[in-house]
UniProtKB/TrEMBL annotation, chain A:
Belongs to the activator 1 small subunits family. This is Replication factor C subunit 5. It comes from the Eukaryota. SMART domains: AAA (SM00382). It comes from Psilocybe cubensis. The lineage of its organism: Eukaryota, Fungi, Dikarya, Basidiomycota, Agaricomycotina. Pfam families: DNA_pol3_delta2, RCF1-5-like_lid, RFC_C. Keywords: DNA replication, Nucleus.
UniProtKB/TrEMBL annotation, chain B:
GO terms for biological process: DNA damage checkpoint signaling; DNA repair; mitotic DNA replication checkpoint signaling. InterPro entries: Checkpoint_prot_Rad17_Rad24 (IPR004582), P-loop_NTPase (IPR027417), RAD24-like_helical (IPR057927). This is Checkpoint protein RAD24-like helical bundle domain-containing protein. SUPFAM superfamilies: P-loop containing nucleoside triphosphate hydrolases (SSF52540). Residues 1-48, 71-92 are annotated as: Disordered. Its main location: nucleus. It comes from Psilocybe cubensis. The keyword ATP-binding applies. Transmembrane segments: none annotated. Keywords: ATP-binding, Cell cycle, DNA damage, Nucleotide-binding, Nucleus. Residues 402-510 form the Checkpoint protein RAD24-like helical bundle domain. Belongs to the rad17/RAD24 family. GO terms for molecular function: ATP binding; chromatin binding; DNA clamp loader activity. Residues 1-12 have a biased composition (Polar residues).
Amino acid sequence: MSLWVDQYRPRSLDALSYHHGLSERLKALAASGDFPHMLFYGPSGAGKKTRISCTLKQLFGSGVEKLKIDQRVFLSPSKRKIEINIVQSNYHIEITPSEAGNYDRVVIQELLKEIAQTQQVDMGAKQRFKVVIINEADSLSRDAQAALRRTMEKYMSNMRIILCANSTSRLIAPIKSRCLLMRVAAPSEDEMLAVLQSVARRVGFDLPPEAGTKIVEDSNGNLRKALLVLEALKMQSPDLTGPLSIAKPDWEVYCHKVADLIVSEQSPARVMEVRTKFYELLSHCIPPTVILKTVAERVVDKVDESLKADIMHWAAFYEVRMRNGNKKIYHLEAWVVKVMSLYKQFFYNIDMSEFD
Amino acid sequence: MAPKSQAQTQPQVGKRKPTKSSSLHRTVRLDGERIPSSSAPSRMTRMDPLTAFSKSVTTVSTVNKINASQSQGQKFKGKGKAKIQEYESENSGEDGQAAGFLWVDKYEPMTEAQLAVHARKVEDVRRWFDEAFEGGPSGKLTKYRRILVLTGPSGTGKTATVRVLAKEMGFEIMEWKNTIGEAQNFFSQESNTSDYEGLFTKFEAFLARASTCHNIFASSSAQKSKNRRIILLEDLPNILHSKTQTQFHEALHALVSAQSANPVPVVIIISDSGLRGEATDERRAEAGGWGWGKDKTQIIDVRTVLPKDLLGGQFVTEISFNPIAPTLLRKALQAMLSIHFSRSSASAPSKEVLDTIVESANGDIRSAIMALQFACIIEFPGRGKKRLGEQRIVLEAVTRREQSLALFHLLGKVLYNKRMGDPPSASASAKDLQKERDIDAALKPSVKLPVHLHQHDRRASRVNVESLYADSPIDTSLFSLYIHQNYTQFCNEVEESEDLADWLSWIDASGGDMWYQANPHQFHLLTLGTLHSLPSPVPRRSQKYYKPEFFGFLQKEKDAWDSVCATRDWLIDDLLSRDGSGWRAGGWTKNDVVLEVGGVLKAQDAIQNSKYARPPPPVHKLFSQMTFTRTGNTVRASQLDERDDFQADQQLGLDRDLDMVSPSSIYKMAEEKGGWLESDDIDEF
């Protein structure tokens, strides 16, 4: 048995339960025979990948569902081996280049060249081209994006690229302009509730409306998260009645407590303590950007109105540095110290004004 | 003085046949081969594979041609043993040829008492040899004592210890030398250019023969030593070349796994070469771009020389030598001086000179002896105090080693942020006070800044950033980690930390992606930024330095990533096993798994009866479970000791890419697992 998210995922464009307009358009596009490069973007858990796979099925038929996983080894310029898992069918290939770390450019180039230079051999195939799906395209490095841009034009005859990203802001303009942009918005609360209920029905139980509403509220437009929470809750209390407490993931709780630490005391010793917590979070593989964002949002909730803008400004500032730098902890800590200092000075100033 | 100095190199023989014996020395040396001569008695044979085995006849004939007769050579060899007494022997009438001998060779220690190495280290090595030849107390350890690795900075007496023990315990040393004199042999024998062997082939042949065959040229003393031999590898093949490295590793494996009743132990001597401030970047540049992994293999250390399974295995023993303690060093130098000047009319160098040398040698006895010899040769002009001062300047220029600043002191200098006019610390001695005053006198007071910049006003710093940069034992990246780990203790207020943290962040982010865009001023920026941000004077509350926690957490992170991969594989496999539903198989990115699946996994663990065919891998807890505990201010990092060196941390790997497991960290783990005890052999039988 797999997770419900995977098990009850819609398999065709017709089975999608929301964004019907988008589905129609995709269907028409697949039928037109002239399929462009595409860029699906939208918040996580909105259904981008589901739509991509449905589109693929529309394009190639059920053959795309026969997947195999390959482990490929690439050689970096310095002769280091990079191992990457690649999911593919006869008609498409799916990669997450961010797993190659700094060497995403090598992976992208090698792989695309290889695919582009092999013709579709299956005479019965509906389309002459193969599709390459690139997950997390917004985490591609500049280098890799530049490499992609040339390839996209050169091998248009037998390859199409579908990019999947949370936001287009980190993609360079030449790539955006070569793609058909598809925005997949987060589902509305009603739509999410409907999906939850239909999944519950297919599993074979009734979802009490209160529980459903609560899950939807908690998951903040992320349908994948909602379904995972539903499954976890169902495991914990099979009848799903009574007061439900949706436990946040451990890392989120942890981040919030770190934020509390920052607000409650501002001293070098406290900086040290917060640092240890950050190390702990990082060593649990929580992406540093997520850490910064979660902690910052929580801190903003707790401070005075006039400080909020500054705190977010510095969060953004150090996030950029984090991307350029190597040691994430420096930047996380620099932000914390900045916030502490701002917060402290804010109170100091209040006291001063009272004396006046 | 110079003619006197060579007196001791040629004992009685030199007296009788001065010209010939000295010409023997010279010729043989040029030949790239050192037949047992001044530095070694007859039992020690240095083997050149070319001449020792395949072409030995040629060599002998060459020697014959040059030397008057072979018997003369033999005679000389026989006398070599008299070397110990040579110190006392009175010589005169020596020729000028031997003047080139360095004291390092001349006064090579002959007995354990003369070794400046700590007695316990010598004892360790001796015990190892004892076990290798006799099998230790149980008589069975021979099997495990196959490879001894001696590591340590240069000039710490690694080779000398082996040589001395060879003499005392009576075994023969067969040493590998990479021959460069090969071409010479080519031209002398035009006939066989076809059977050219690569250097490594020769090395393998050497290993094979040395471990199985006996030396037929062995003199009578070899019989006394009951055929005890060791193979000494100091001049290693070019293991920076990855293919040669692999071959070398294979050769070692073969050597260790060879079943032999009487195995020949191998001693490998590796001198640690430290890194300097900018070294990593340079290496990266050489490696071309991201230099991943390649910059690791550019260092010859125990991890590149030995394959990692051997390193942690039972056949390899590693003994690391520390820099020689100043007291031992001084004793050894003094002993040497008293011998040297016992017969000399010249006066021994003053105590100050000796002090300077001991101080600046940094535990390197070789450089200390060199400096001492130099100090005795040159004539210092002038008299009295002026002369002394000049002496000091010259000696400092000569003896100064590049890494003379311990990490501990480097941190202290920066983090204590001493500035001009700081009140002297309570414990400072009069000498320290004088020193501080001298420094202050040499400093220019800082310029007064305009009003709008008054917050940047600082008194002039006593820290000389340039000399720190030159002396830093670690590279900037590691230095910044140390600063980062320790700075909070030196700040009073969060504002000071703010500046410092910003500097760290900025320096880390400065420069571009590519190696050639790396910021070349990082060290200076870091040091100056730190000095500028710290309060002045820094509060004294008995701060302790800690080693960066960074590497520990990095290791944890790598383990956690492995568990993320395992969990994702579990998710995907579960899907693929069900036909036709492998729909979203590739859709789980690592981040999705980390951020969202945790809840389900936790619930799954809570209920015992699993609805899955295969339960999720238990390692998922590495990333999915976090409990928040207020640890307070307890620091878990280990403390940095004055005597600690940075090597261990260095080896943990300073990876630019945190997602990837560094090879050295695996070695590290392997190292920790493989702890073979002396008692292991009891289980074995």
